[in-house]
Specification:
Elements: H1 2-16, E1 25-28, E2 32-37, H2 53-64, E3 74-75, E4 84-90, H3 93-105, E5 109-117, E6 125-135, E7 140-144, E8 152-163, E9 168-174, H4 181-188, E10 212-220, E11 227-231
Parallel strand pairs: 4-10
Antiparallel strand pairs: 1-2, 2-4, 3-4, 5-9, 5-10, 6-7, 6-8, 8-9, 10-11
Length: about 240
């Protein structure tokens, strides 16, 4: 009985977090690697002390290619811990420098997210503009309709993809990149992402995550100069 429970618990943990043995690689070449982030993963080390995805991918690469010594891996961008989807890492310092410049510029990078929300948006398609104020202590951002002290402008474009019985599936393209931008902007217009208690959802998801998924990442390859698109579907059963 104890063994059955332990095996079940291990299986749940395996589904929620990534380890060197279950890395879900979406794209890889000599310069970059794209990973499908799971709910429990943190992209880069934080105050929790949990092993970050960056360290796990280093170990994965070390074992896969039988590399002696330290493996280089650069963090290009991040996803909030309860979200899922495409995360890109650089495997060389040259790729990291060029990708950092691209992501800062934003014109050569397109991030597309899917979100399940609990209410119908004001229109089937539209652009949201808010000014976000970040609360460091609460690790939360609040959206305002006009500029206020210490605020940063946030812009996103959304489109309704599908209406479900209790939820609505939105496709979201970020124009800016702010702290908890999608979560905060949707909450500011009364739309709450399924499972996102921090931003007003009524109940949590069984896995502790939220239904916000980095569905697609398009960018210009830092070395080959080709257009690359990496996609992954959410595991929401819709």
């Amino acid at each position: 009985m104890v063994c059955a429970f332990s095996t079940s618990l291990i299986n749940v943990i395996m589904k929620l977090t990534t380890n060197a043995g279950n890395v879900d690689v979406l794209y890889e070449d000599n310069h970059v690697i794209g990973i499908n982030k799971r709910v429990g993963d943190i992209v880069q080390g934080d105050k929790t002390g949990d092993t970050p995805l960056s360290d796990i991918i280093k170990e994965y690469l070390k074992v896969k290619y039988n590399k002696p010594g330290e493996v280089f891996l650069g963090v290009v961008h991040r996803l909030d811990r309860p979200t899922t989807g495409v995360v890109l890492f650089a495997k060389t310092s040259k790729a990291l420098a060029r990708l950092n410049a691209m992501f800062a510029n934003k014109e050569e990078v397109q991030k597309t997210y899917w979100a399940l929300v609990d209410a119908m948006p004001p229109a089937e398609e539209g652009t949201l503009t808010h000014w976000l104020v970040r609360n460091e202590k609460q690790n939360k951002s609040v959206g305002y309709n006009k500029e206020v002290p210490h605020s940063k402008k946030a812009v996103l474009h959304y489109k309704l993809l599908k209406s479900l019985e209790r939820y609505y599936l939105l496709e979201i393209n970020l124009i800016t990149g702010r702290h908890h931008q999608i979560r905060a902007q949707l909450a500011a217009i009364g739309l709450h992402i399924k499972g996102d208690l921090k931003y007003g959802a009524k109940r949590s998801n069984p896995d502790g995550g939220i239904c916000l998924h980095a569905h697609k990442l398009s960018f210009i390859h830092p070395v080959k100069k080709e257009s690359i698109t990496i996609t992954t579907e959410p595991n929401w059963g819709i």
